[in-house]
């Protein structure tokens, strides 16, 4: 479903860990809206805003340790941003932490691809409970699984690119 008027939209679906997952991207003139759902609702609503001023202030000289050139390049690619939960799971819960990681990766993808983008991002995320680790102390397998899930979600989001 690609429409140009009145709002640009893209939609994609895939199975992530055998669970149907949908992403809808809407490009308003003043916001990007992304809905990532496995539950047919928007779940938690998160607002992300890039902070380019903070990025200008960040340099390798603000760190105690010497950084390699590769680490310096990685640091330069990180887009500082603010995350605000508007509705739903706060970042203090495991689900909220997972959602915040997904939102941060989406933010890096959008603002990293288009550094001069000033529109904030609204992300609605609703994942099935089995995709969210329950423990606060994660095993290496849980960390790898969470990373694969987040990477799969990001790939699906990238297929709905409006930026």
Automatic annotation (TrEMBL):
Alphabetical list of InterPro entries matching this protein: Proteasome_assmbl_chp_3, Psm_Assembly_Chaperone
GO process annotations (BP): proteasome assembly
Transmembrane portions of the chain: none
Gene3D superfamilies linked: 3.30.230.90
PANTHER family found in the cross-reference section: PROTEASOME ASSEMBLY CHAPERONE 3
Protein name stated in the entry: Proteasome assembly chaperone 3
Origin species: Smittium simulii
């Amino acid at each position: 479903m690609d429409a140009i008027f009145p709002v640009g939209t893209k939609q994609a679906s895939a199975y992530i860990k055998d669970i149907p997952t949908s992403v809808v991207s809407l490009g308003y003139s003043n916001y990007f809206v992304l809905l990532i759902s496995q539950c047919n609702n928007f779940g938690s609503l998160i607002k992300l805003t890039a902070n380019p001023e903070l990025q200008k202030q960040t340099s390798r000289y603000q760190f105690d340790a010497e950084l390699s050139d590769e680490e310096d390049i990685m640091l330069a690619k990180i887009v500082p941003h603010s995350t605000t939960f508007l509705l739903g799971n706060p970042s203090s819960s495991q689900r909220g932490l997972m959602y915040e990681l997904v939102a941060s990766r989406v933010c890096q993808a959008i603002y990293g691809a288009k550094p001069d983008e000033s529109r904030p991002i609204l992300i609605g995320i609703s994942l099935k409970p089995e995709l969210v680790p329950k423990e606060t102390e994660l095993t290496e397998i849980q960390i790898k699984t969470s990373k694969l899930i987040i990477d799969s979600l990001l790939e699906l989001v990238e297929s709905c690119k409006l930026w």
